[in-house]
Amino acid sequence: MGTATFNAQYNKDPYALPTTELVQQAFDNGIRAFDTSPYYGPAEELLGHALSTDYVRTKYPRSSYQLLTKVGRIASSSFDYSPSWIRKSIRRSLSRLHTDYLDVVYCHDVEFVSAEEVLEAVKELRRIRDSSQCIRYVGISGYPVDVLVKLAHMVLRETGEPLDAVMSYANFTVQNARLSKVGLEPLLAAGVDVVPNASLLGMGLLRRTGVPIGAMGDFHPAPDGLRDAVRRASEWVDKQGGGEEKIEVIAIRFALGSWLRDGAKAGGMGPTLSNSSSDDAAAGERLGVSVMGVSNLDELHETLRVWRSVVNGLDDEVQQQEHTRILGLAQGIRSVLGPAWTDYAWSSPSPDFVNYLSPEHISLRDLTADIA
C-alpha cells in the first residue's frame, strides 16, 4: 500500500482522508507493507498515527509488517543527499512512524542529483544499517528507467554490494512498459533483488476523469498530447462492453496481473496477502511486487478485489481467460495511443531544473546531531 495519496498533490485536504481507517482495513485485508516518504506532505505522520493506534498495536505486531520510506527529496525543486541530512531524515521518519527500524529506505528520485551524490547517500545508509540496525535494506527510486539501471550498476561496481531494491514508478502501465522492456533484465544483472512497480495509473494519468487536481494544482508532467491521447483511449474503452468498462480498471488489472508474472524474477516471496483468501494461491512462489495508493475505502476494497481476482487467476482457468481479455483491451488502448505516446516517458527532471536548498534548510541540517 502506497501513501503518496496522503498528500495535497492528490487530494485537496489529506487530513480529511480516512487514513487511519484505510490503514486498519488494509491490515484486516492482509496488506503487510506500507510505502511512504517525507516528501509526501503529511503522509509519514498520518501513517504513523494509524500504526500507533491500539487497534493496530494489539492485532499486528511490528514484526508482522514492513515499512518503506525514502530520503533525499525535500520539495519539488529541493534535494539534499548529504550524510548529515540523511541522518536527520532517518531519525525524523523513525519518530513519525513510531518505530525502531525501517525495513527499506530508498534514495528518493535519484535522477535529480549527481551519481556521486547517490553513491555517497547509499554508503551512508549502509553505514547506518550496519552501525545502528535501524535500517534493514537500502535502495533507490526514480522515474527514468535508464538512470535507475546506470546507478544500480554503478553502486555494484563501486561498492561490490548490489542494491537491495530499485523502485520504478509509472514505467509499467498500460501506456508505458519500459520497465519490463529495457529495465528489468539490466537491473537483475546489477544484482538488484526486488523491483517494485509503483503508480500503476501513471500518477493518475490513466483515469477517465483525467489527472488528479489537489490543493497544489495540476502537478502532472504529462504533455497535452499525451493527455489528449489518453482521453481518446478512455473514450474507446467506454465503447467496449456496453460502456461498463473504465480505462482505470483496465489499467490496474493489466499492471497488477502482468507485473505479477513479468516482474517475478525480481519479485517478493511468500503469501500474496497475509491471512487472506489468496494465501494458498502462490505462497511459495516469487511474484512481481506492485505499490498501489488509494484515497478512500471504496478504492481500497476495489483494488483488493481486483488483486485477489488477479492472484486467483494464476491457477483458475476462468480468471486466466479474464486476464487474456484484459490484455486484449490493453492492446487496444495502446493502439489508440499510437506510436508517439506508447512507451513515451516525460523528461525527469525538466530541462530547466535547478536544485535549491533554502538557508533555513541548511541551518536545520547543520544543527543535526548524528545517529550513532
From TrEMBL:
A Pfam family the protein falls into? Aldo_ket_red
What InterPro entries is this protein classified in? AKR, Ara2-like, NAD(P)_OxRdtase_dom_sf, NADP_OxRdtase_dom
Q: Which GO terms describe its biological process?
A: dehydro-D-arabinono-1,4-lactone biosynthetic process
All residue ranges annotated as the NADP-dependent oxidoreductase domain in the record: 1-308
- Please give the SUPFAM superfamilies that the UniProt record associates with this protein: NAD(P)-linked oxidoreductase
The terms under GO molecular function for this entry are: D-arabinose 1-dehydrogenase [NAD(P)+] activity
Where does the source fall among the domains of life?
Eukaryota
Question: What's the protein called, per UniProt?
Answer: NADP-dependent oxidoreductase domain-containing protein
Annotated source species: Monascus purpureus
